[in-house]
Amino acid sequence: MEIIIKPSVKDMLLRGFNDITYFVRELLEEDLHEEQEKWLKNSLYTRYSFIRAGNRWGKGDCGMFKGAYLAFYKPVSKRFKGKKVHLLNTSISQDQANIILNKFEERLLDKKYFSWLITGVKYIPFPHIIFKNNVVWWFRNATLGGKYLEGRSYYWTNFDEADLQPDLAGLIEKIIEPRTWDMNGFIDIMTTPRRGKKNSYILWKKWEAIADNGGVCLMKGDSRNNKFLPIEAIARMNSMPTRLLNQNVLAEWTSDAGAWTDDAIEYSKNIATGIIENPVPGHLYVKAWDLARSSTWCVCVIIDITKPHQIVHCIRFQESADNRNPEYWRLVEAKIKVVHKRWPGTTVIDFTGVGDVVGSYIQSINPVMIKLNERLKADLITHGVTELEHGNVGLPHIEHVAKDGTVWLAENEVRDFQENTHGIIWDFVCALFLAMWVADGKEAGRKEKKARPAITGVRGVSKNVAV
Fold first, then answer.
1. Does position 394 have pLDDT exceeding 70, yes or no?
2. Would the pTM count as exceeding 0.85?
3. Domain membership of residue 433 as a residue range
């Protein structure tokens, strides 16, 4: 088939192939800040690339642009030109792995020089984008020791927020790297340091030791160099405590991971506006309930949906003598309905276990019902801890004295949870994470979607341009 391409378009395609930043600006019609330009140019065909950058630096954008470039030009060796080529974006949870996919759907599906190449976006068995030139870009989680990453070769793998992944270096060495050998592929690591001098730090030092031999690109990004952030955001960054500034903005590591927890809690306490008894006119709230039997507590956390989220009220109670009685759950139902009516906005229920019973009582208020299976629970925790570490929630002083005189503090439960996410009671934390999850527009679960066709086309350009 004869391919007719306008000279101007042909020149753009050639220039884009030789310069990824030109490809982003002219063919994807997106902009970059200077550190993103540097990263994309230096890391494009580098065997091992590692960007550690602060929050809002734009790591996800770089992952999206690089994946789009590799899908568009398919710059593999001749023996793979006519074969199927797989790209991979992965992370500790499916929710995190989907972030770049979500960006792609929002921003690149209607680009006239790019969208013609897209056959569709599918979500079964895992989210993936199918391109007309036989490229498939997968978005899969790295849980269960990388179980879902096995079974195929990858030309390029991007690991997003890699510091959250335990034994990252081992996963890269044992699971991911062997799947790039067939195609002599590339591995990218993107993260903001969160877990002290372990996880991604170990991998950084390993790659740093071989950097002089070539094939390694290591770079650190400062969030304040993102020219697209509003002045107010930069001012907020500069006002952070030194430890949080170093971690969340300058992407520094620390030998004491627990110290980050203390600073994050102190920062959340400092920005808290305090507990209020009545809603503010015109404000909307999320009221999230974690319901429990006698061994734990029924907790409702109410947050103002403005950012940073503010915890404005908390209800915590336990009636061990009565809570197996159906009449007790009718009392809980009444409490939920009173809170829902008093505080405008959405009511959220964890309907795992006893929440399922109460959920059947309160359908009239149209609550958001979230059942925490293992995968969704992992996503919820990742999102909640990340929001806390980013300083995106105000944590006021919340104290409760039990009948036996035991004093409970909300900040202590948060601190205990961050230091040990297994084996502690997390009623308050669960309710808080549910509230932030819904306030940030997260879904309780993604339903299967049909393949999404390309939106626009460019006359005279065929898939052969990119193979």
1. yes
2. no
3. 285-439
